[in-house]
Amino acid sequence: MIAALVPTLLAETSEPQAGFPLLSMLIIVPTVAAVLLSLLPATRRELVRPIAITASSMTCGLSLYLFTQFDKADPGFQFVSKHPWIRNMGISWNLGVDGISLLLVVLTGILFPLALIGPKEDHDQKSYMAWLLLLEAGVMGVFLSLDLFLFFVFFEVVLVPMYFLINGWGHGERKTYSAMKFFLYTMFGSAFLLVATLALVYLHRNATGTMTFDVAELARADFLSVTQSRWLFAAFALAFAIKVPVFPLHTWLPDAHTDAPTAGSVILAGVLLKMGTYGLIRFGLYLFPAASSWFAPTFLTLGVIGIIYGALAAIVQKDLKRLVAYSSVAHLGFIVLGTFALTRQGLTGAVLQSVNHGVSTSALFLLIGWIYERRHTREIAALKGLQKVAPVMAGVFTIVMLSSIGVPGLNGFAGEFIILVGTFISRPVFAIVAASGVILAALYLLWAYQRSFHGEPDEASLGMADLNLRERLVMVPLLVLIVVMGVYPKPFIDRIEPSVAELLSHTSGHHDGGEPPLSSGDGYVAPTGDNKPASSSSHEGDQQ
Amino acid sequence: MGEWIVLVLGAAFALLGGLGVILLRHPVHAALMLVQSLFGVAMLFVAQQAHFLAAVQVIVYAGAVVVLFLFVIMLIGVDRAEDIRVEPLKGQRPLALFVAALGLVELIAIVAMQNDFGGVLPKTFEGTNVEQVSAMVFSDYLYAFEITSILLVVAVVGAVVLARRAPRHIDQTVDQQIDGAP
Amino acid sequence: MIDLVWLIPALPLFGFCVLLLVGKRIGEPLSGYFATAMTGGSFLFALGVFADLVSRNGEKRSVTKVLFDWISVGQLDVKASALVDPLSITMVLFVTGIGTLIHLYAVGYMHGDPRFSQFFTYLNLFIFSMLMLVLGDNFVLMFLGWEGVGACSYLLISFWFEKDSAATAGKKAFVTNRVGDFGLMIGMFLLFNATGALTYNGVFAVAGNGGITRNTATAAALMLFVGACGKSAQLPLYVWLPDAMEGPTPVSALIHAATMVTAGVYLMMRVAPVLEVADPVVFTVIAWVGGLTALFAATIAVAQDDIKRILAYSTISQLGYMFLAIGMHANAAAAFHMITHAFFKALMFLGAGSVIHGMHHEQNVKLMGNIRKWMPITFATYLLGWLAIAGIPPFSGFWSKDEILLSAYEGSVGGAKVLWVVGLLTALLTAYYMSRQVFLVFFGKERFLHSTTGGIVPIHGDSHDGNHAPVTPHESPWQMVLPLVVLAGLSLTGGVMNLPFSKSLERLARWLEPSVGSHEFASTGSTKVVLALIAVACGIVGIGLAYRLWLGRPLEANASLEPPLLQRAYGVDSLYSSVIEKPGRKLADLVADVFDGKLIEGVVNGSGSIVKLVGGNVRKLQSGFVRNYALMIAAGTVALLAYALLRAAA
Amino acid sequence: MITSLPHVLAATTGLFASSLGLTQADPNFPLQVDSNAGPTIDLPTIDWTSTAPILTLVVGAFILLVASALLRDRLPKPFMVVGTISTAVLAGLFTIPLWNRITDGTNAPTIAGALNVDGFGVIASLAICSAIVLAALNADEFVRRERIAHPEFFVLMLLSGSGGLIMAAANDFIVLFLGLEILSIALYVLAGSHVRKAESQEAALKYFVLGAFSSAIFLMGIAFTYGATGSTNFTEIRNSVGDFIVFQNDAFNIAAVVLLIVGLGFKVAAVPFHMWTPDVYQGAPTPATGFMAAAAKVAGFAGLIRVLVSALGDRADDWRPVVWVLAVASMAIGSVLAVQQHDVKRMMAYSSISHAGFILVGLEASGHNPLNPAGVSGALFYLVAYTFIVLGSFTVISIVGGRGDANHSVDAYNGLGRRKPALALVFTLFLLAQAGVPATSGFMAKFGVISAAVDARSYALAIIAMLSAVIAASFYLRIVMRMYTAEPVAGVSDGTGSSALRIAPGAWLALALAVIATLLGGIVPQVLLHFTDRGLF
Amino acid sequence: MHLVAVANPNPKAYLFVAMALFVLGAVGLLSRRNVIVMFMCVELMLNAANLTFVTFARMMGDIRGQAIVFFTMVVAAAEVVVGLGIIVSIYRRRKAVTAEEASLLKG
User: What is this structure's pTM?
Assistant: First the structure.
């Protein structure tokens, strides 16, 4: 009855790691800067911005360096940095990056300096900047963690700065409500995530005798029963679905977006939502391959509903930020669709589109933020004729908008197209319905653009200044990304694809009977004959 | 047979006393009924060969504790008889009776369900009861005995803290005190 | 020379980039000339490539030039690569050729516009996109161009965004096109799914050896045709084109007459091998959609007053002809008409633009008259275009239209003969409404002269000098006149490309054969002549009718010829509005307000309220009365004792 | 008192002697009984080491009491607080040899089986000593300001703490019960020590009435256990195989268990025995509330875990469902009602009920067959973490409460972030820690118990716990939000009147200690886990 | 055997008495308003527990049950001291001894 616990060693002898701890630095640099800022005496306010910008730029530089040093031939985890943390629970500081997370890390690195520099200076920069930097560290941690515990910690940590950013520096009367909603909604999901994580770990321990939170190790062993893996997947997926957000769990998003400060919206749309899609891929698919294929129709359906639903709701929004928020629901529907198409194209597209959406939507939020700074309103009805007074802003807006609509040659298309192709291969009906969302995307964005930018400027718009130099410079990297990723996405795809292929070959090894097997390695099935049902019959292909 | 008598008497004393405590409206009467009840329990102790305890029961309990009760009752006024027919809390009394009745039934049931003991004492005590108890208190319960001292100290200090008449300036307002403080 | 094919789109792209960055600094008119030079240079390269291609023999006339990997994931392998073959180079030639002319024209037309350089930025981007559309060797690159021209079209239609109508029209064009694009994408996916390839050659190779089932091919073909309908303004997706006339006239000429709208035709010609595999019903559908659109648009055109709208409906109608031809398997005829139409319709748009320019942005033909007196060159060139579209020999339009009618007459699809009659009827109507327009604009009385001032008081649009004093019509500057003359020449002689008199004279058809396949006409020479005569007769009747009605009697007498139904274009716009837009808006409102705002939010906030409600009620137990608390403890104890009993009993 | 004093003094002397290594404790000292006069009393050997921490607290309390009585006005101002802290620290230091025993594996029940200082006892003792230190630091300024009986407040705190230590180390029901009473009676008095405040007295009264009621039930539980097992000693109860047992019907055994749970459930404020908590927390002087929240919770759970796991581990299947229900009810009711509160102390009370639910989750998790050490370890970690968090929180609350200890409405926190940014930041940390945000010990605490629950496959309980944490987060955040965004209310939170804040150095020190502990517990939890993992087994 | 059973009561009888006394005390605590009487009721409950101990001690022939009662009495005394102290303290301020008068804190 009284089981003696095996004495564990307390000593934390970290295993020697060769080389520069690049990934750890990505987390440490912003954290240290955040602490530094919070300790900064009130008299040295002038140092706040330089410190924050330096730190985030350093992180950005590190992430870009990571991008260049990343070996695209290696589908596994690279730059792994593993130090035991809580030994007797098998918890370790375990960071690594692969093709699926690489671009998100880089995106995070790039977006944060822009979000710091972009908006006009607000009151109380000190804590604002500190929270933002902490947020950056958290997000980096989420994307880099290979340890489920560590991941959960970062996943939760991210909530706090975001809560404060919305609540403390947000615009709008409902910001408190929105911040609370954001926090509680996500925490609700985390509840299931934590329990499922632990259940997974313990089931693994019971089966193998080792207690570990290491994702790779958990994925390697095949120890879950069909029912277990379905339940666990459902719990994981719920947490991530809220974060994504997947319809119908999306209602926190418009509120949070609308009431967040510009930088908050940028980060929220740019990287925070990606934590959900990333989680679905990294943990949902990777850990529970069979269950994810069993749940795929559900998620495909929800994704498709999200696409149409988000777009429809966006059409009638009166607030620009809300509109973009609903458009995010639609766009993330595409990512979910691609993820659960479970084909190489679909997954690659989902990852790529995560980045694309991050770039485009951040740019949109920055622009809307600048409009708000100038006009103190985001009501579409209150804006008119901005193009005439602010042609550069209008031009930039147009490019970003077209990218968001998915015009080929800009980044939005590449991702969407790959996703749709990948989905069509395995689930044509979903792809067809999803593609119709493309029409709606054009509708709501163009209509909003027309109402706010076209026409003769009214009284209030007349004095509005165009983008200033700082704002233009902030936009440059985003526009470059929008074009480069649209014209030549190869460097990005090349880095994503091997990891995706690896993931799929991992998943194809596991599927429970009665389920349609995942398409292995490559989504495309019929090189020789047309053994796919023709379109007329393919409509019924997925009804079963 | 003798034990039967003691039992019935003791039980009657104890239970009637208890009833008296909860039914008599005057606190002084209640206290007296408490003495009766305690005495009844002491009788039951005697019936079960707990002589030492019976003595202590009478001396300490009925003697000291109830006196303390009476003292306080007197201190704060004997005239404060309570009208026990009034129950300001809605539903409290019926609920209390219901819960209590249920509890009694349960407790009785729990005891009654046990094996019948038939009144046989499996063991007899050696030596006198006082010796027995003291041997136990100073061996197995030595530590408990030691720490009762702490309990008593706590009680004394606590009583001092609570009952000490506050210094006169305490009747001032808080701010006055603070402003007036050096 | 073929190796340099990438320079063809590169030049306009370069022009776009330069103008985007420093266009404003270059200013007017240099930026216009620069853009023209880029397009012209691209035309010259195209000529070079064309010459190279001509010098090769048949087999080698299809060359793929890969630039880089574009989107490549697993089997999905999309390269940025150009397919140089007769069809694409033909398209390139007339796109860049006409494009150059229209660029030049625009230098004059856009004179004084505050966003002069921006206009050319867009134009160059458009040319680039159009070139990608026709040069791409795969569906995705074609789609890039396809969407690119759509986006440019959007930007250019709403170029004068200060006007709400222009902004709305731009949006409408884009969104309507997107509906078509949806079809195109699905078509692409179907083909990719069936063949694993997205290059034309790859798909056709699989299609050629029976790798695509008939059902797949049919579905793909129909979906692609939906895309074509959107871009080429066919029923039922044509509604955007008339509104697109809100754009500056050079845009209408270039995009909405000569080039972009023919993309759909190009697409259908391009995917001919797939169509061949598909069920023949596809051809029937295409032919009927084309024929009906032709007639439908022509009937609307007879009642329009806006000089550009007439041309717009005419364009729709003529595009219908092209699809009719494709439906009849006469791809070469379609291509032929596409080219001649590009000549004469561009000419007429530019002429109309010249008139509008001269009339200080007056577009109502009823307010014109006797313009020939003021703008003789415009008049002369317009006449050639008119005769060409009316199908009067030997103008280019006659030859190409005749071939389409012939193909319809011989056609094997269901109801081909009916379509032939439809075609003839359309020809008659075309001649009629174009004549009406010509007569109203260039002949008759000068209805525009203001009685008191003796000039025009500009009623809308910008007068260039910002001076609202009455002015009189004037001939346009040379930049505008020169393209008119060149295009007039081409309209006159364009038929030479493909004369039906002998096989050797059917140059275009033979040239395009490797790309679009061949189509043998069965009819003998005499039948052809009779048919041609009938067609010509239709044209002459139309002209005569118009002469009698529009020159022979006062305008007021013709009110009955323009029934409101036709003026309102059969009320399709309002129909769409009430059938699609309004319910759509209702649905969106429903989703956003009721479903999202009330239902889902209700559940979310409701759970919060439930917590509060429960809390509020439970809180009442915390009454502050110690005996209540004790009762709670007692109750808890009793409950636990009950548990003890129950568990022991179990 | 008179009778007991000699024992204590004797014990004290012995303690000092032994701890200084001067004399060997005489096993028969001081009560030698003449063998002719009845049975020989076999006096047990006093294991001074095991009781040293407890004795230190008691002796320290006496010294302070006597010194302050004799030298009332001549003592330097910080004498009481320094003395209290030194005593507590010394008591804490005396646990080191005990821990060494545990690492050596030589710990066993001592003093005739009355005490069993195992890992669990040591850590709970340390937690209580820490609570004394932090509460004393906070109380120093407070008692002076509020004119509360100054020396007695600290003395009672030390004595109450000794009761907690006794409970933590008890290996016998009687010792446990006495410890409970020492702890409780001192707490009743502490709650009522603000004699000029009606709320304080009301709190004392309610606490006392209900406490006495539940003590009686607890005592009946002990009686039943005695009847069921024939012993009050945990070791014997655990080893009882039936030969002792009088009553063999399970109903009796289970009834014994549930009655014990009621008594201890009251102490730890588990629903439905929680009703006293909000009123007492609100009414008691704030430093006392903080001490009560920490020490009573630790001691109560120490008792509960001792009873249920050490003594009645074999009956886990009987008590586990009860604990399950109590855990769920506590978490749910605590969270849901806390949302409704407008008084911060009351809110913290409900939050402490909710925390009790969480700790019960760990207990529930341990009650599976075979007993799951992770549950106890998790609960223990939770208790230690909670001690620091809650004392830190109450330190802030007592600062904000201001003169008269009255300013406890949530409005008082409006704009605190601007008036006292550091204080607001610290409070934010404590609130977030209570909400279970990572990088704080609060998260690791929740993680520990949830982890144990999942390990024991109590999935439903784990999920309910996490969901109630979501509800709980909402009211913690509400305070945070007020501190940073809400507009101050005149006279309540605008820095005037009673809302003018003064932060004594002692309070800063307490806050600093609590912050350090909270952060360390979140960032390097393995240090504490290393200890808590040796909790009970 | 039978005779013995008649001669001496079954020890369970004592238990029944104890249970009844215990519940009686509880009822009093729940329904009396005078705090002093409520304390008396607690004493009744403690006595019931004591009786139970003694009964078990006798049934098992184990003296420990009696020793325990000794401690219980100390506890009861200590409780009474403090409880009455609280009452006195309250009475000084408010002249009130009914439980309902202490209800400032609630909700």
Answer: 0.88
